[in-house]
Design goal:
Distance between the termini: 7 Å
Structural class: alpha/beta
Bound molecules: inosinic acid
Helix content: 25-40%
Strand order of the largest sheet: 2-1-3-4-5-6
Radius of gyration: 17 Å
CATH class: Alpha Beta
Strand content: 15-25%
Oligomer: single chain
Order of helices and strands: EHEHEHHEEEHH
CATH architecture: Alpha-Beta Complex
Largest sheet: 6 strands, mixed
Length: 195
């Protein structure tokens, strides 16, 4: 294969811009299976306020491309809880930082409707006019207590068909079912075909 995927380590031109190491580890494991190597750029970037993850992530990708002039991808996720009208959705990061998992469980106290979904949007950009979006959705439920000790909403999200929260699963097991895996795999299939 030629182009981006053959570039190894320091010579890799493809950047994954994120300040979240958990995402880097997940992306390395998934994209690595396709022979896609990227360089991690540890950077926080602005996110506009909008209702759609696709719009938010696309704007961030454009913002980064304008400054870095380098092929790159970013990933944005959100937890959408049906009983809360889809909240926190695009406000997931802020909600996690402010009320956290305990706050979400409190908002849902006494609610038997526990259905939710995790969405992931991967945006790849390699020119101002060439932007590609890949999405992954996993349906599930919100647990009634904190279960497990991993990052973000992992301790309260139980994917459909499973009895454990993401946090109670091992790394590989979460990878098998995760919303991010679905989006990253779509990206990887597209990338490999393109080259
Ligand atoms: P963002 O994509 O970094 O903006 O994520 C929004 C919020 O969702 C952050 O608080 C993350 O910690 C959380 N989040 C995103 N993906 C996951 C995941 O796979 N597990 C747990 N929390 C996640």
């Amino acid at each position: 294969m030629t182009g981006l995927v053959t570039c190894r380590n320091s010579r890799s031109r493809l950047l994954f811009v994120t300040s979240n190491m958990n995402k880097v580890l997940e992306a390395k494991s998934i994209l690595g299976k396709f022979g896609i190597v990227f360089k991690h750029l540890n950077l926080k970037y602005p996110e506009i306020q909008a209702e759609s993850l696709r719009v938010i992530a696309s704007e961030s990708a454009r913002y980064l491309y304008e400054r870095l002039s380098n092929p790159l991808f970013i990933e944005d996720s959100g937890l959408f809880i049906d009983a809360l009208g889809g909240f926190p959705g695009p406000y997931s990061s802020y909600t996690y930082k402010t009320i956290g998992n305990n706050g979400i469980l409190k908002l849902m106290e006494g609610t038997s409707r526990r259905s939710a979904r995790f969405e992931s949007v991967v945006v790849y950009i390699d020119s101002p006019k060439s932007i590609h979006i890949f999405t992954g959705v996993v349906k599930g439920t919100i647990s009634s207590t904190i279960r497990g000790q991993k990052w973000g909403f992992d301790p309260i999200f139980i994917p459909e068909g499973k009895s454990q929260t993401y946090a109670e699963m091992g790394f590989d097991e979460k990878q098998m079912v995760s919303h991010r895996r679905i989006a990253l795999e779509k990206f990887a299939f597209w990338m490999v075909k393109k080259l």
